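[step 3/7] fold_predict: job queued, chain A
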Amino acid sequence: MTTYLTTKHQILSSTLILLLAILINSCSKPQSTEPDAVLPATYQLKNIRYFLYSGDRVDTITVPLKGAILRNPSSTSSTQQVTEDLSELVKTSQFTFDPSSQLPKELDLSKFEVHIPQAPYGHDRNSLVQSSDTYPLSSSQQQKPYTSKTGATSTIIIPPQSKIDIIRQIDAYQLSCTFEGFLENTTTGQRYLLKGKWQGLLQYNNLAVTLKQSAL
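[step 4/7] structure written:
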């Protein structure tokens, strides 16, 4: 009789242990089968330069500017102060990327800000000096106001019963050149060659002002 009770007690204890193990396993978190999250890659643009290559050129275009009319309906001569205003001028920038460049597909190049050509020449005949301001590395044309130190003030004498038309124009130098640079994955150190063409306004020069007098 004693042996029977002991065996029954052992069976009951084993059953309780088995139930506890099932409950513990059912409450534990399932092991994730998802792969470890991959951090997004970050890139840095390095060593961008501009130079003249085969087919590159500078075209000069004469751009008309807003004029002005000075009137003097009186019977005596008058004078007026006129200050040159070039605020209507803009600097443009547009990049065309070489399709052979094997760049990461997820990369949005327009988020990069780069210096663009400002004037020839740099260390050699084919290199171009870069501007101090920056523009997006974009395939669509970008525009910003053109900064210039020109702001001379002139005194103009207007004869009696006359008007003077002020006609203004300036030369714009449009550049097409080649650019190269590197994009570096800051995590892996992998580099990608970036190259193509840049087109835009290099600089303005040769402001011309013509005065044309006529009677009122």
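[step 5/7] annotate
The chain has a mean pLDDT of 82.
The domain at 43-148+158-215 is CATH 2.170.15 (Proaerolysin; Chain A, domain 3).
exit 0
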